[in-house]
Write a structure and sequence with these properties.
Elements (H helix, E strand, L loop, with lengths): L1 H19 L5 H22 L11 E2 L6 E3 L9 H8 L2 E7 L16 E3 L2 E2 H16 L5 E5 L4 H7 L9 E5 L3 E2 L1 E2 L17 E2 L6 H8 L1 H7 L4 E6 L9 H10 L3 E7 L9 E5 L2 E5 L9 H4 L7 E10 H9 L9 E7 L2 E7 L13 E5 L11 H8 L3 E3 L5 E3 L10 E4 L6 H6 L10 E7 L1 E4 L4 E10 L4 E4 L4 E9 L1 E2 L4
Parallel strand pairs: 2-18, 3-6, 3-11, 6-7, 12-18, 21-22, 22-24, 23-25, 24-26, 25-27
Antiparallel strand pairs: 1-13, 4-5, 8-10, 9-17, 11-15, 12-15, 13-14, 16-17, 19-20
């Protein structure tokens, strides 16, 4: 214990040294000090190991009463009822991520998704349509990170005349050396690589501290709908909002049925008599396969969350997050292993024991674009873009599930992906696609059933225009004749 206390004292000293560097810049100093108070709690939770490891034998399926079907929700039909509900809600998009995974620079939200529209364009279009249809004024709030804030601020000016749009920065925490448990930076904000945005679990304290939440409360807004900026299915759902308002619920997590594509997704469990979010990072190594089972854990968290502002206020003011589960994210910086301590936003559900629910929603409300494989699916003829900015599933698709698509390293970056596709193949009847190696697609290619295309090292496969592949395995170094 003495060693732990010594580490905490050293950490406090180094954080004070960093704070002193901002002493002459009052706004920066105030922000830093506020963020570090939360970081200290997070760090102490980690270093003292306050968070108990999951005891696997205590895990139970959530009670049937705690997960309700979306199809069973009451849906208001009168416009005036819907308008009254919409006065109570604001939309929050988690916009802290960069597009580096797909080879892009800047915020991920400005990647063009479909019809030359970006994630942000589609989100704004959705809210504009909602407001116009029901004579509402639902605001959009963006939680940025220090990586995305400046560019996002410049981009959102084009929406100023069409929608109320606010933004705030989530916290900026110092990375920690794994070996010494000391902060990596020695100078305040000198090198971005030494700092990190601490995951979407930071939403609650950062939103509370931003002042935007207090402003919304003064306007009579009671709830926020929070979702990832890259989830194209996360639109305002009147049925969920109505259920929340009607029954006085403070926290709703949207879950959906797990498929083989979602085995790593967090799931809701009953743990010691309460709802809890179980993430794969919390699972003992010898239980990973069991966690991934779609028979035992049948649902997963979409990270579409509905939270009351009063609930957030209670959570932050009473400092309840000190015992909130943490996630350890390891990185390598300059050849040394460093640590990021993070939290998941959905983990807050355990602090609303009497007024929280899971709602099992259709898969259409979970359309994330994390990779070019996901981009391939949403850009295909499997979906069409509606006038309201939503993606509608092609009615010709007879299967309820979305095809599993795995594009190889050669397609990882958006630029490379686009250069290898003359246009996106017809995949309405596709179940599974795996592409590996140097492969290109011509125009009007049709893929059906299970298709596997593997170009061996040093080889190339060109799929000519007009080709139809149905339940085919293609490998080697060849071109396919047009049918």
């Amino acid at each position: 214990m003495a060693e732990v206390e010594e580490i905490i004292v050293k950490m406090d000293h180094q954080l004070k040294t960093l704070a002193d560097q901002a002493a002459n810049d009052q706004p920066k100093h105030k922000t830093f000090v506020g963020e570090m108070e939360v970081f200290k709690d997070l760090f102490q939770t980690y270093i003292k190991k306050k968070v108990r490891p999951i005891e696997w034998e205590k895990i139970r399926p959530p009670p049937e009463t705690s997960i309700i079907k979306h199809s069973g929700l009451d849906m208001p039909t009168k416009s005036e009822e819907i308008s009254a509900l919409l006065k109570k809600v604001a939309v929050v998009k988690l916009n802290g991520g960069l597009g580096t995974t797909m080879g892009c620079t800047g915020p991920k939200s400005v990647i063009e998704v479909t019809s030359e529209l970006t994630f942000l364009d589609l989100i704004v279009k959705q809210i504009q349509t909602l407001n116009k249809t029901y004579n509402a004024d639902v605001p959009l709030i963006l939680m940025n990170s220090f990586n995305t804030h400046e560019e996002t601020q410049q981009i959102t000016t084009k929406y100023a005349d069409t929608i109320r749009c606010y933004s705030f920065n989530q916290s900026q925490y110092p990375r920690i050396f794994k070996e010494s448990s000391m902060p990596v930076p020695t100078k305040l904000y000198h090198n971005k690589a030494e700092w990190y945005p601490p995951g979407h679990g930071d939403f609650y304290p950062a939103f509370y501290a931003s002042g935007i939440m207090a402003q919304l409360q003064k306007e009579g807004i009671e709830y926020v709908f929070v979702s990832n900026v890259d989830n194209l299915g996360a639109t305002v759902d009147i049925g969920i909002l109505n259920h929340m308002s009607k029954h006085g619920i403070d926290f709703i997590m949207e879950v959906t049925d797990k498929t083989l594509s979602d085995v790593k997704g967090g799931t809701l469990i009953d743990y010691e008599g309460g709802l809890k979010l179980l993430e794969i990072a919390q699972v003992p190594s010898n239980k990973i396969d069991e966690f991934k089972s779609i028979k035992k854990f049948k649902i997963f968290n979409t990270n579409n969350l509905w939270v009351s502002l009063n609930g957030i206020q209670t959570l932050v003011k009473n400092n309840l997050m000190t015992d909130m589960d943490i996630i350890l994210n390891y990185k390598v910086e300059n050849g040394q292993q460093v640590l990021q301590i993070e939290r998941a936003a959905g983990a807050a559900i355990q602090y609303f024991p009497k007024s929280s629910l899971g709602v099992n929603v259709p898969r259409s409300r979970f359309l994330p674009v994390k990779s070019t494989s996901d981009l391939f699916v949403v850009q295909s003829n499997l979906y069409s873009l509606t006038t309201s900015g939503e993606l509608a599933l092609n009615p010709k698709r007879i299967f309820p599930t979305i095809p599993v698509v795995k594009l190889g390293e050669e397609f990882k970056k958006v630029g490379d992906y686009m250069s290898r596709m003359a246009n996106i193949p017809d995949i309405v009847e596709l179940d599974h696609l795996t592409v590996s190696g140097d492969v290109t697609f011509g125009n009007h290619v049709v893929l059906r059933g299970t298709v596997i295309i593997v170009a061996n090292k040093g080889c190339r496969i060109d799929i000519p225009s007009g080709t139809i592949l149905e339940n085919k395995v293609v490998s080697g170094n060849l071109r396919i004749l047009v049918h």
